[in-house]
Amino acid sequence: MIVITGGSGFLGRRVAARLPDALALSSSDLDLTSPDAVRRAFHEWQPEIVIHLAARVGGITANLQSPADFLVDNLQIDTSVLGALRLEPPKHLISMLSTCMYPDELSDLQYPMTEDLIEAGPPPPTNASYAAAKRALWHGTIALHDQYGVPYTALIPANLYGPGDHFGTQSSHFLAAAIDKIERARVAQQPRVSFFGTGRALRQYVLVDDLADLIALIATRPPLNRSINVAPTESRSIKDLTDLVSRAAGYEGTISFTGSGPDGQLRKDVDSTLLTTLVPEWARIETDLEEGIAMTLDWYRDHVATG
């Protein structure tokens, strides 16, 4: 039996579609912040594979406004799940981490960051609480393996995007917010779109469907017992991303940056050499960024009102 936590979320519902026999849990099915409820459920189900995707997530604004909630809610969820698996060890735990847990700043020679640099420095202040919770999940996943023999694969994806994303909300990552803002400006024939920050920060984006394909593939294979970055080779600046969205949308106005407000980490690019070595199919799975933006924009136009 396969259990997917966060099975109704942005990533989870796609993983569930690829694993139709899995039990995909939403928050209405099981309160993951309740250790007793999770322990009873896992004792009843006895899952062989657990794909742990459930988390409280959000963009920079949400993280800055609610740091305690991001820390406590995620720690409660992860502690409940890991505590249950300590008593009912599965044959494979697939934990979902995030490149947000990498250090805020390293020397230029240390980029792109490899998996051994996760704790080489403090995480970025813009999402320190979320990063701390993800680092705790990382330690917990490894500790379960070391003490209780729970085999695992810990995936560390870059920012996700794609059809069905959270557009124009505080939970949006930048690319989804940019698609929403630029497309609305195009429809309204606004001559200028302005974004906070400088546009210099570099980002890597992974199409959510690609990550779902990767998880479904890994679920059919023996555990790797490794932590693995999942990201494209190339990083794009925030300014480059707005240019890509503008071209895809056909927006002919001006894009500007205020120069003030949070940029987030200036660099958070990671190295995916380990992924391409252990899972060479990733080269076939990965979608080009321009193609993925076009797909996402098409979905947005079909499903999100722009006025």
Description:
The protein has 307 residues and is an alpha/beta fold. The chain has a domain of 210 residues: Rossmann fold. The strands form 4 sheets. It has a 6-stranded parallel sheet with strand order 2-1-3-4-5-10, with helices on both faces. The protein has a two-stranded parallel ribbon with strand order 6-9. α5 links the parallel β4 and β5. α2 runs parallel beside α4 and α4 packs parallel to α5. It is globular and about 60 Å long. The relative contact order is 0.14. The mean pLDDT is 94.
Q: Give the beta-strand count.
A: 12
- Rg to the nearest angstrom? 19 Å
| Average pLDDT level | 94
Q: Structural class per helix/strand content?
A: alpha/beta
Order of helices and strands: EHEHEHHEHEEHEEEHEEHEHHH
CATH-scheme architecture of the domain at 2-164 and 205-232 and 269-287: 3-Layer(aba) Sandwich
Low-confidence stretches: none
Shape: globular
What is the CATH homology-level superfamily of the domain at 2-164 and 205-232 and 269-287?
A: NAD(P)-binding Rossmann-like Domain
- Percentage of residues in DSSP E strands: 5-15%
The portion of residues assigned to helices is 40-55%
Total number of helices: 11
Q: According to CATH, what is the topology of the domain at 2-164 and 205-232 and 269-287?
A: Rossmann fold
Q: Please summarize the sheet with the most strands.
A: 6 strands, parallel
- How far apart the termini lie comes to 45 Å
Q: So what's the CATH class of the domain at 2-164 and 205-232 and 269-287?
A: Alpha Beta
Strand order of the largest sheet: 2-1-3-4-5-10
